[in-house]
Write a structure and sequence with these properties.
The protein is mostly helical and 140 residues long. Helices cover 63% and strands 3% of the residues. Helix 2 runs antiparallel to helix 5 (103-136), helix 3 packs across helix 4 (86-99) and helix 4 (86-99) packs across helix 5. The two termini are 38 Å apart.
Length: 140
């Protein structure tokens, strides 16, 4: 045993252990990675047909809403589609107005949702550290 060994108090070991600060480039790298993924998704958004069964049904229902001017009841081949609220179809209709009725316009809604979710994940991550850090500190 060593003679200069000392025992640590409870406060020194469990309550507030010193933590290394996060590297300054961690959040920047995460933002760059998400931006590259979004760019790749948007660049390839118009390639290929609407291959998923539901992807075509959502696009068809939005197209029928534009044709019939019925903005509250989405239908596909005359059959009501009530699984999703109309906001989903309104977003597709908005992209139809911007890009025309095509595959890229039908998929643009998904890209916007992914970008919003990614931005929300970054904010939650940053806020989570602040909230958890303030909750772990003992009152002064």
């Amino acid at each position: 045993m060593t003679a200069d060994a000392r025992t640590l108090s409870l406060e020194e070991t469990l309550l507030e252990p010193p933590a290394l600060p996060p590297p300054p480039t961690r959040h920047a790298l995460l933002v760059i990675l998400i931006a590259l993924a979004a760019l790749l998704h948007i660049v390839t958004i118009g390639t290929g047909d609407l291959y998923s069964e539901t992807e075509g049904q959502y696009a068809g229902a939005a197209r029928e809403m534009v044709a019939s001017h019925n903005w509250l009841l989405p239908t596909n081949n005359g059959i009501p589609r009530l699984q999703k609220p109309p906001l989903l179809y309104w977003l597709i209709i908005a992209s139809y107005k911007i890009l025309g009725v095509n595959e890229a316009a039908a998929r643009l809604r998904c890209s916007a949702e992914y970008a919003a979710m990614s931005a929300g994940a970054i904010d939650v991550d940053a806020c989570g550290f602040r909230v958890s850090g303030s909750l772990l500190r003992s009152p002064a």
